[in-house]
Amino acid sequence: MSEFRYQAVEESGASVAGVIEADDRKSALRLLGQRGLFPSQLEINSANGEIKTSAVATKAQTLAEVSFGQRIKRKDITALTREISALLGAAIPIPQALDSLGEEEENPALKEIILKIADSVRKGAAFSAALEEHPQRFGKLYSSMVRVGEEGGVLPKVMADLADLLEHEDEVRGEVVSAVAYPVFVLIFGICTVTVLLTVVLPKLFSMLQDMLPVLPLPTLILLKVSHGLHHYWPWLLIGLVATAFGVRWYLRRPDGAKNWDKLKLRIPLIGPVVRAAALGRFARTLGTLVKSGVSLLPALKIVENTIGNQILAQQVASVAEETRGGDSLATPLRKLGIFPRTMIQMIDVGEQTGKLDEMLLKVAEIEERQMRARTKILISLLAPALILVVGALVGFMVIAILLPIFKMSRAIH
Predict the structure, then answer these.
(1) What angle do CA 180, 184, 188 make, to 5 degrees?
(2) Which of 3, 217, 276, 318 measures 20 to 30 Å from 14, CA to CA?
(3) pLDDT tens digits, residue range 143-169?
(4) Which helix (H) or strand (E) holds 40?
């Protein structure tokens, strides 16, 4: 049992200080929370009488130096959301819950953010407002749902719904990444193999063939020119590729570039339907989760507009929001746009009439996501063999280009 000195704020706003005995820091925080106290500073007396200060603000500043270069993954935010939901469901106050999670977090960058949020809440800020201070980690959808939970007094339930939404999106994203992994591996392996052959192996072989044959076959000459260019000018080619990559990245970050890219993705054969189904599934699931959590339809549409992931479809959602503002139902403007299939519109219409719009939107999301998964599997089933054929054709052309002069020399010998 250790003694902890604390400075805390009561629910009335008054500052208090004192000493509490507990097994560890986590237990001390829990005991203070049970007393209705929100600690701003907690100090432990060590065995030799020295005091180790662990003020939250100071700790956050120290972690800022350690966390440089650390990466916070999306799944870390999802896991954090589920843990917050569980702690709030156990009636643990938000500051104590965040302190506990911050102490146990192994990622220094995320630990810093959690402690900063806990410090903001302890100083009187709303949980949603504290989250808005970190928009890169907690987007508008996240903070808006938390705000609704705070205003309605159902924050634990809303956090559980939000955790379900994030976990489902992570699951769908994981399935897509797993499906794409094999074709990408085939492509990268093929590029590496061809590059090594052209830059390391073939130049030595072609120098021998040129000495032995005065005239080389056309495929061999083509391959010789390509190999010579890669072998002698690879630094410039590498610089050109890097410059092109940065140029494309700069263009896609521009508003017009991002908009044109989103438009192109919807028009690409085979890929366009997958992108559309994924965006519409995200639209329906996010909107359904917001409505289920108590967000009214118009603000929910505004939030979904920023989270749908495609600017072209986001503009259509914005037009739906404008028509909804005028008193129309959700199904009517969606039917005008022709975004969803007719059966989906009917389901949304029935949901509005029966007061179960959230349930119908989530069912629509399941249908669209099922379509997206099916189309993704078809696309991958076509893409993998196509890449194998391309790589095989390149390697086959190289083999033919090498064997032709050898056959020519053998005929000359005979």
Answers:
(1) 175
(2) 3
(3) 877 887 887 777 888 888 888 888 888
(4) strand 37-45
In this structure, how many other beta carbons lie within 10 angstroms of the beta carbon of residue 26?
A: 14
Q: At residue 377, what is the residue type?
A: K
Please enumerate in sequence order all residues whose Cβ is within 8 A of that of 340, keeping only pairs 6 or more positions apart, or say none: 280, 334, 348, 364
First and final C-alpha spacing in the chain:
97
How big, in percent rounded to 5, are the helix, strand and coil portions of the chain? 75, 5, 20
Q: What are residue 21's DSSP bridge partners?
A: 3
* Furthest-apart CA atoms within the chain: distance in Å: 105
Q: Does pLDDT of 23 surpass 80?
A: no
CA-CA distance, 261 to 249, in Å (whole number)? 11
For the chain, counts of helices (H) and of strands (E): 17, 4
Is 38 strand, coil or helix?
strand
User: pTM above 0.70?
Assistant: no
Q: What's the CA gap between 401 and 58, in Å, rounded? A: 68
